[in-house]
Structure formats: C-alpha cells, structure tokens
C-alpha cells in the first residue's frame, strides 16, 4: 500500500501552496466541464470549513472537505458536517485512499464536539463506496440553494447519506430537510 500523509487543516490555515495544490487537484478533474476551482464557492456549492487532504510527497492527491452547519430536519435543528469535494487523483486510486480520507474526516467531525452527523449528497454510482465507509442512506425531500443561487426542493429519491457521530450516536430524525444554504 502506498504511503500518504493525511492532514486536517482549517480553511483559514491553508497556505498559498495548499491552495495551489487543491486547485491543481480539482482543475485536473473538473476544469473542462465546470471551469476553475474557487475555494469560496467550489463549482457553485458551499465552501468548506475544514479540509482533509492526502499528500504523496509535496503533491495533494486527495481531498474531503466539510462545513459545520445547523440544518432543519422536520421540526428539529441538527448540527451536521456537510461533506463535499471528495476527490482522489487518478494516480492515487486503488489504495483505499478515499476510505482512509473519509475515516480521518469522520474523526475530525466527531472531535469538533457539537456535530451530530456527517451529511452528503452524491451520485447513485458512488453510494456503495460511501456505505462501505459506514454512511447510511436516508430518504427525504431536500431544500437548498442551487448552484445558480436559486431555492430548489428535491423530492425524495436522489442519494442522501448520513454518518452518525460521537460516542452515543442518535438515529437520523424524520422529516424533510432544509439545508439552509447551498449543498456541499
């Protein structure tokens, strides 16, 4: 198994080199389809408070980002770590780096103290990967601000996954979800 250095860095502590490495990672994957990566609104989604990165030498080859937010679920307010920007360089795939990054991200979310769940939306074809990493699929409608800045409500069906956190994790509450902002 290839050796990678995995680091957890608050967004405000990213260096100029970190930003350049993240830009290179994301632009290599998405530039042609979505344009240049913008750390303040990556491809129209919400930015991250925390970046979990993997390096091989000086090169960033993997990333998971998360942002703490209070969302509405039914009648409840729920503190979540909204996860996005999960990306592994094609040159670093095959070593279970994605699972290792998600595990480290979960540790950082749990150590944040007041985050009850990890939360993410994804494409159907990657659901088995997240489930293998301990995430649980839920079914609910989801209200958010879309990538163009407009409110949108997605009916139940597209993949939404949660990860209970903490020493005594609770079940996900029932009801429709209001992200109270952009998705991750």
TrEMBL record:
<dbReference type="Pfam" id="PF02474">
    <property type="entry name" value="NodA"/>
</dbReference>
<feature type="domain" description="N-acetyltransferase">
    <location>
        <begin position="9"/>
        <end position="164"/>
    </location>
</feature>
<feature type="region of interest" description="Disordered">
    <location>
        <begin position="145"/>
        <end position="174"/>
    </location>
</feature>
<dbReference type="InterPro" id="IPR000182">
    <property type="entry name" value="GNAT_dom"/>
</dbReference>
<keyword id="KW-0012">Acyltransferase</keyword>
<keyword id="KW-0808">Transferase</keyword>
<dbReference type="InterPro" id="IPR050832">
    <property type="entry name" value="Bact_Acetyltransf"/>
</dbReference>
<protein>
    <submittedName>
        <fullName>GNAT family N-acetyltransferase</fullName>
    </submittedName>
</protein>
<dbReference type="InterPro" id="IPR003484">
    <property type="entry name" value="NodA"/>
</dbReference>
<dbReference type="InterPro" id="IPR016181">
    <property type="entry name" value="Acyl_CoA_acyltransferase"/>
</dbReference>
<feature type="compositionally biased region" description="Pro residues">
    <location>
        <begin position="153"/>
        <end position="172"/>
    </location>
</feature>
